[in-house]
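step=encode ok
step=design start
structure_in=
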């Protein structure tokens, strides 16, 4: 779809996955569909009456040139689900976000991702658990994903950064603000250290009771698995865990005291067989198939363009040759020869069954 069309649809804030797919099927593309914009059109699309009036007013006042300029001013990248930069893992979701606003290094999404969530009212035990798991994930070359809320979310980001890793923060509001405001400095540090902040919402969207569950599905969808550090019964962290299960992702949970209500949610999903009880990061890494310690971030000076491309395509998640062919667009023979050179240089490792990781 054309960029002006995408910006208009995003600003209207009415385009769910289901509506997007319905419009594509009926009109072929969203450019054609936008020409039908009217109150009757939105009502036929299933938009509530109050939301229809808001969307009509927003579109009347919208100026795509000014909005594009504002995105550029804030160094934000705007992409749609039709763009090549759109994260592959989100494409797999039945309710994928149609639009994404991002700031930071998009390459963070190409590494193995682990979602780590927990209570806003974090306990000392929860803080210790985050410090126990997150540094090991970083050492194994994983990028953490969380929500930048108070408590465990913020602690996951801090532990990741202090361990020399990168983290992705998914926000439940537009990137015109950082909420909570107290985490503005942490958000800046995430970006300064090669991480990423993203949202599916237009810049001016404020956080509310609907935006956070929507945010949770992106957190659950990005990760190879989700670790619940600390969660009370009925908490947002359990929503994220449930979504991860729906998406076919692994869910892990830390247990706590039976007298601590902050762990009632963790105990519930463990007892129901919805989450695997874990006490060490190695258990999580093994379950996900990640080679622990295989890819600590370090400088590598490639001796050729092929070495550079293949090295960047490798992660701590074992990759077969076929996957590397797809990622690098290089011939299999070239990849095999280059992998041997990288192994001799200590930059790659054959972990068996024809699979390779970055060393």
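sequence_out=
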């Amino acid at each position: 779809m054309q960029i002006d069309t995408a910006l208009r649809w995003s600003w209207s804030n009415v385009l769910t996955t289901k509506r997007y797919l319905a419009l594509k099927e009926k009109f072929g593309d969203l450019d054609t569909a936008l020409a039908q914009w009217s109150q009757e059109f939105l009502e036929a699309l299933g938009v509530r009456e109050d939301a229809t009036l808001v969307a009509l007013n927003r579109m009347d006042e919208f100026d795509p040139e000014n909005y594009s300029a504002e995105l550029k001013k804030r160094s934000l990248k705007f992409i749609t689900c039709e763009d090549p930069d759109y994260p592959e893992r989100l494409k797999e979701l039945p309710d994928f976000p149609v639009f994404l606003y991002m700031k930071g290094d998009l390459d963070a999404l190409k590494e193995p991702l682990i979602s780590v969530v927990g209570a806003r009212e974090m306990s000392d035990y929860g803080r210790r658990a985050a410090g126990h798991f997150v540094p090991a994930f970083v050492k194994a070359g994983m990028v953490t994903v969380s929500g930048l809320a108070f408590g465990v979310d913020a602690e996951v980001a801090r532990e990741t950064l202090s361990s020399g890793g990168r983290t992705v923060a998914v926000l439940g509001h537009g990137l015109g603000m950082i909420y909570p405001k107290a985490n503005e400095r942490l958000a800046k540090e995430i970006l300064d250290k090669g991480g990423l902040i993203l949202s599916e919402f237009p810049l001016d969207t404020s956080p509310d009771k609907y935006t956070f569950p929507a945010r949770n599905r992106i957190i659950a969808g990005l990760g190879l698995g989700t670790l619940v550090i600390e969660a009370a019964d009925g908490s947002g962290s359990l929503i994220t865990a449930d979504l991860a299960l729906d998406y076919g992702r692994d869910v892990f949970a830390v247990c706590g005291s039976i007298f601590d209500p902050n762990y009632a949610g963790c105990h519930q999903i463990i007892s129901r067989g919805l989450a695997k009880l874990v006490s060490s990061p190695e258990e999580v890494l093994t379950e996900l198939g990640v080679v622990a310690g295989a890819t600590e971030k370090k400088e590598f000076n490639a001796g050729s363009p092929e070495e550079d491309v293949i090295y960047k395509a490798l992660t701590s998640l074992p990759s077969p040759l076929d996957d590397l062919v797809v990622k690098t667009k290089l011939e299999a023979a070239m990849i095999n020869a280059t992998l041997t050179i990288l192994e001799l240089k200590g930059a790659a490792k054959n972990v068996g069954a024809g699979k390779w990781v970055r060393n």
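step=design ok
step=annotate ok -> The two ends are 40 Å apart (CA to CA).
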